[in-house]
Design a protein that fits this description.
The radius of gyration is 22 Å and the shape is globular. Helix 1 runs parallel beside helix 11, helix 1 packs parallel to helix 21 and helix 4 crosses helix 6. Strand 9 and strand 10 form a beta hairpin. The protein has 21 helices and 18 strands. The relative contact order is 0.18. A 7-stranded mixed β-sheet has the order 6-5-14-15-16-13-17. A 3-stranded antiparallel β-sheet has the order 9-10-11. A two-stranded parallel sheet has the order 1-8. With 513 residues, the chain is α+β, with helices and mostly antiparallel strands.
């Protein structure tokens, strides 16, 4: 298994538990990938800003006994505070749908009935989507699940899948402030425009998070891959770090192993690539069998995608307070809103402008931001001398930045934009900070052009097995499989691709017998 992100680890752990002799290769000095938590500036910081949600609905945590290997989740009292650059009319999202609706009666009373109508349609869709993710990769199973659940819901799921997220959300809500937070954590995170056809399932995000409680692993996001690592090794699996793969050896259409940067070749009849499929097909395969020529040529014609996300991390001696927080906190006096992730959404017009600027190598003056103070919910994330830490994810920040990233002052500007949302300038309380920009992701995480692979096809494409190397995990090259965030369903910290790929490998092995 090549790549020690959470999906690669999960796939490897399932294979090892099945009795397969399994070796995981990781190019970095530690496993975890973008789900890691790293030490820097005298503190611990998560590489990604995402809270863990979807993986908590998967059987992975129980199957791999991750709670026995040190995993523990903490839940904020309120999942999200939805704010905006004008600091007007924020609202609070809770895991409980009832609690969310109660809050909306105070902050957005005209949208209460709209939200109820939305949930009436969206909750069954979200339930079905979760069941589909659990079911694996068989089209027959997927269709059976859909028809068994509810034909009306199945039909609506397909209709949403064809539509754009903006189209679906606008059919329920009349206030843009109810629409944009879902766009921010859906299509925007994916790098897609909100009106792009095929993004409609992003509209189910509120319903999904009512079904699955978001949480953060104690000790940081990296506690998840660390627990999977321990589970993997307990089943006899081996991990080799600082192992950079440069090629896949193929003979007579069959995988024979991988080549490493030091020239060594490791023999194996099965290789699972838990990394960017573009790199696999364009850089690693140099002896393409006839059965895979069309597929490899297709990938070689595709442009190399560019990264568009950055993250600011830092240590702060005084917790910052948003301008909109005192009023919101008085409305929700029984809830500690400082525990929550704060989503700062632009207007739709500003988001469209941000997409345009991204293509021109520039960053909006009102970017989408996902901010948190991880050490409020989890004191173990404080520095040794008790200072709090903060994290701010910023979208869009293009890899091909005009003028380059070398001496760019862009990260300082973003920090200033975040500071303008506060009652008091937080910059004077920041002891130290750092910026993870696309060039840093490329350098430190072996991500070509700073791009984090993501699955960009619609659910319909998956349903009918289009791009089979992604939606079904198995390639035309015998013994070569794909997993990771670029394969369905693969959004955020999910784990389903790793589990499903392991099932495909085992099924393929049985067929060969």
């Amino acid at each position: 298994v090549v790549g020690g992100g959470h999906n690669g680890l999960i796939c490897a752990a399932y294979l090892a538990r099945s009795g397969m002799k399994t070796l995981l290769l990781e190019a970095r000095e530690s496993v975890g990938g973008c789900a890691s938590t790293v030490s820097d500036l005298g503190a611990r910081f998560n590489i990604c800003a995402c809270d863990h949600s979807l993986i908590r609905a998967m059987p992975v945590l129980e199957d791999l006994k991750l709670y026995d290997y040190g995993l523990e989740y903490l839940e904020p009292e309120a999942t999200y505070v939805n704010g905006f650059h004008d600091c007007e009319n924020p609202w609070v999202f809770f895991h409980s749908a009832e609690r969310t609706i109660d809050g909306l009666t105070q902050t957005h009373p005209t949208q209460v009935e709209n939200y109820k109508n939305y949930l009436k349609d969206a909750l069954p869709i979200a339930e079905l989507a979760i069941e589909i993710a659990k079911s694996g990769v068989s089209t027959k199973e997927i269709l059976f699940k859909a028809l068994e659940k509810n034909p009306v819901t199945a039909s609506r799921l397909l209709r949403w899948s064809r539509a754009s997220a903006l189209e679906v959300l606008n059919s329920y809500f009349t206030d843009w402030r109810m629409v944009m937070p879902a766009i921010s954590t859906g299509p925007t995170v994916w790098g897609a425009p909100p009106d792009a056809p095929g993004t409609g399932m992003g509209a189910a995000v509120y319903a999904t998070r009512h079904l699955i409680e978001s949480g953060r692993p104690r000790g940081g996001s990296g506690s998840l891959p660390e627990a999977i690592h321990r589970s993997f090794e307990s089943s006899g699996g081996k991990v080799r770090l600082n192992a950079v793969v440069t090629g896949i050896t193929i003979e007579k259409g069959n995988v024979k192993g991988v080549r490493l940067h030091d020239g060594n070749v490791l023999a194996a009849p099965i290789v699972v690539a838990a990394c960017d499929p573009h790199r696999v097909f364009v850089e690693w395969i140099d002896n393409t069998p006839p059965s895979a020529k069309r597929l490899v040529n297709k990938w070689r014609k595709l442009p190399i995608p560019e990264g568009y996300e950055s993250k600011l991390d830092g240590v702060i001696s005084k917790k910052p307070e948003y301008k909109f927080m005192p009023g919101l906190q008085s409305t929700f006096s029984d809830v500690d809103l400082e525990q929550s992730t704060v989503i700062i959404s632009p207007t739709l017009e500003k988001l469209k402008e941000a997409h345009k600027l991204k293509g021109e190598g520039e960053v909006s003056d009102e970017p989408t931001m996902l901010a948190s103070l991880p050490s409020v919910l989890d004191p173990s994330m404080k520095t040794k001398n008790g200072l709090h830490t903060f994290g701010v994810e910023v979208l869009f920040t293009p890899y091909s930045l005009k003028g380059g990233w070398g001496n760019s002052q862009e990260p300082s500007r973003w920090l200033g934009i975040w500071g303008e949302l506060m009652q008091e300038d937080p910059l004077k309380y920041i002891d130290n900070w750092r910026a993870m920009t696309p060039d840093v992701y490329e350098r430190d995480f072996h991500m070509k052009k700073g791009h984090s692979p993501s699955y960009i096809s619609s659910p319909l494409a998956t349903l009918f097995g289009r791009q089979r190397e992604l939606s079904r995990y198995e390639t035309p090259i015998s013994g070569l499989f794909l997993t990771g965030a670029a394969t369905f369903p693969g959004a955020g910290i999910f784990g389903a691709p790793g589990r499903n790929t392991a099932s495909s490998v085992l099924a393929s092995t049985e067929r060969r017998k």
